## 1
Amino acid sequence: MRVAILNIDASSEQKPRVYFSSEFGQAWANWLENLPNPKQTYHVELSVGDTLTWGLDILPAPGASHKLEPDGNGVAIYATLEGCEDDGFTVLRLGNSIVMVEAFGEPPPIGTIVSAHIQALTLSDTGI
């Protein structure tokens, strides 16, 4: 996914946080490697550190379109459910990007638009 870095908060003792913009919206996320340059664009991979539960923090979102938006201290990702295994491995499609999450419980049918409420979203520069 291509993102533009709008703001950087490097005050955290853990990973720096970046406020970014993409074609799907704006949100905060952790940045995995060296600090990015503000006002630069990057091709990134999205990683989710949360374990999600169907019906609690990942839900069907009928009529929604693909988007990202701030959600408290995290981000809400609206994407299409592409696949879900019994071991929790779940694949979401956000535009042309794939987001892999771990989600347990009873999922909706494949192809359903879902909203996933993520507290630990991390971006990493792909170098492309």
## 2
Amino acid sequence: MSDMVMHLIRSDVEDILVRALNGEQLGYDDCIRLMRSRDVNLIGKVANLLKERLYGKTVSFINNLILNYTNVCITYCKFCAFYRPPKHPEGYTVGIDECVRRVGIAKELFNIRQVLMQGGHNPDLRIEYYESIFKAIKSRFPDIAIHALSPSEIDMIARVERSSTREVLSRLKDAGLDSIPGGGAEILDDEVKAVISPLKMKSDEWLRIMEEAHRLGIPSSATMMYGHVESIEHRARSLMKIIELQRRTGGFIAFIPWNFEPNNTELKREGLVRYSSGGMELLKMISIARIMLNRLIDHIQSSWLTNGIGMAQLALHYGSDDFGGTLHGEEVVSATGARATTLTEERIVKAIKQVGMTAVERDNMYNIVRYFD
């Protein structure tokens, strides 16, 4: 009898892990039990086996630019150190020409394949601002994918325009939007949102806008920001809502769990969160995501941005298949002062090779475009 089978027999979640290995889809109660279990290493082994069935030892990443186009925001989320209220002396909005210039520089220096465009909820920006940027980028750099504007930003644009979110999505797609990131989800439970982001859209609105995007042929990523005021039950409910939507639409192409960084945030100043949740929690969340999302969402990112390169390398053995992006120009996490928030292609490739895996560069839709021997 193999060591893994012997360990499964002794584990408090062995029945769940056996069903996962057999390809069965799991439910809320299974998710709760996995999150309560302390057998992180075995959960990680099973998650890694599921990942290797799909990708072997191959790990992907993307060369990309993050374009944080404005830090002006009227949502005032307590977990955010990036935003500035309107008329604040440190508030900014990047002009259309400057946005395109930055993309051009990143294309020339790093041969980026994606621009990830996110910012605050700025009530002074009309939809034409975004359309003009997208059209200009696509005109000059048609091979660069535009991965932009989370559901909460889409909601803000719709409010400014007094329009429907579906019409906003349709217009942005026509202007060049390729896919949308999963920001604004945090934890998809309104009990949590009432504490950390009371002025932001509710959970059902995030899910509705994501479904609208998927129905319009706009794929997206899904995210979970954990490690603040939420409970295990909140995490499980949030993940199950993503699973339920994916079963309906199939529009999520990746899932990205990342831990809350409390530095310079109101949650820390109020004493609600003192420390980040740490690396072991990352490995657990990565593993559970792989197991719960098996055959539903293929790609799980290792979240180096909030946990560092070392933990991201470990995550590659716990079910993650993607290292994420180079993130040139990132400003949101860097506002917490946590760590450097840009990596070069060379550093990512080296990090992947150091753990005995093969690095590949991908595009926005996770198609492999280059192998690194």
## 3
Amino acid sequence: MKHRLELLATFPIEIIWHENKTIYFSVKKENGIYSLRLHRLFHDAPSPVLEALLRYAVRRDKKAKAIIRQMAHLHFSRNVAEAKPLPPVGSVYDLKEVFDRLLPLVPIEGVSIGWSDRRGRGRLRSITFGTFDHHTRQIRINPILDDEQVPLYFLEYIVYHEMLHALCPSKMDGSGRCTVHSKEFREKERQFPRFVEAKVWEKGCFTFFKKRRQSGRS
């Protein structure tokens, strides 16, 4: 890989491989040498992608950035990695039971679910209730929802929403812009049986969780 890049480059480079899928490509220039930190997804990348890496490293070329993002999107959507097992059973709610009840509405396969081991800290400005990792096909739910005062239908809505991400994966256009919530996704989301109730509760939940945190409950 380094040899292939050196043949294409007109400047000295060094490559550092990593597995961080959040920042899969970064570049730093020191003493005339371009240091490229690359995710291993680029190890066998075709020449057009390698050329894009070099163009972006030197000129921050927007078209090159789009090619790089498309390559990463393709890799993470097609290659499934082993996920760290997360406990589905909380002190109040069992996520596997919720997941299984929703399967007839969202028929998906090969997806695991569990309570996240990361609870939000610091100032409460926003809340991420759940995430779906396409690379590991794992749904992680914020343990802040494992609370007897959180309505079951709201937890079900959050799980339903994340399951839809598995059913309706994000799409990337030619400019490298990624659409996470497509028209199909939004239409299916509104089919959740208690969608309106869940959205109403969501609007007021920030104050609820803020008070819970101030009281030391979460």
